[in-house]
Amino acid sequence: MTNSPKLAVRGLTKRFNDLEALSHIDTEIAAGEFISIVGPSGCGKTTFLRIVAGLEQASSGEIRLDGRPITKPGSDRGFVFQQDNLLPWRTILANAMIGPEIGGFGDKARVQATRQLLKLVGLEGFENYYPKQLSGGMRQRVNLARALAVDPEILLMDEPFSALDAQTREIMQTELMRIWEEGRKTVLFVTHQIDEAVYLSDRVFVFARRPGRLQEVIEINLPRPRSLAIKRTPEFVALVERIWNLIEYEVRQSVLEEMS
Ligand SMILES: Nc1ncnc2c1ncn2[C@@H]1O[C@H](COP(=O)(O)OP(=O)(O)O)[C@@H](O)[C@H]1O
Ligand SMILES: [Mg+2]
Hints:
By secondary structure, the protein is α/β, with parallel strands linked by helices. The chain is about 35% helix and about 25% strand. The protein is globular. The chain binds adenosine-5'-diphosphate and magnesium ion.
């Protein structure tokens, strides 16, 4: 990488007692890159994101953001979880404003900016609704707007669409692409769906487990902007197949273990 990386990961290791959840991860991520992380359950995807978020400490090694070691959470990183965690007693706008409020930026200008974000994620007109009045897909959009509301450098997304039905999920994928094309945030996106990873990403990180580690990095050199139709091209299908072959054995093992 010629320019200095947005995120530099060096010898990152995380142990929980005698379990090595992450082992010696080394990588660099450029500003504006869209990275997906795939791998069998338990390979440390969430742990990796939590360390980047500053919610968890590394056992050894480090992660630098713009050259500075990450030690705690900060408004330079926005987090979107699998389940929306909206506060039911707050309106959509008030939910989206939580981040800025905590950061001490609850002023009028920021309220205006947050309204713009709600518009960006397709929720104009819903500012005064409550979470229970919205569908799952809409609530996940609020989550996304909320993460963007602190204007983070990096967006961390942990299986954000996994609770959605297949159609809503595809709509959310194209929406996320559109938003990313506009703002070009650096994104780390965890997913179980390989086609989702290929569709969205510049590179896909394939993690393996026991110990959790970065097994392989796959470049996705498909042209952008990408329409959903790209999912039916031979190039796309071949990439999905290649990644599946990398993790199939491991996924089988983890399913067998979960059943036993
Ligand atoms: N707070 C914790 N304490 C002990 N073990 C943990 C903790 N968090 C995660 N683990 C373990 O670390 C491994 C990786 O977990 P996780 O990062 O959640 O994997 P993934 O998100 O890929 O499914 C798993 O074996 C999990 O049980
Ligand atoms: Mg996880």
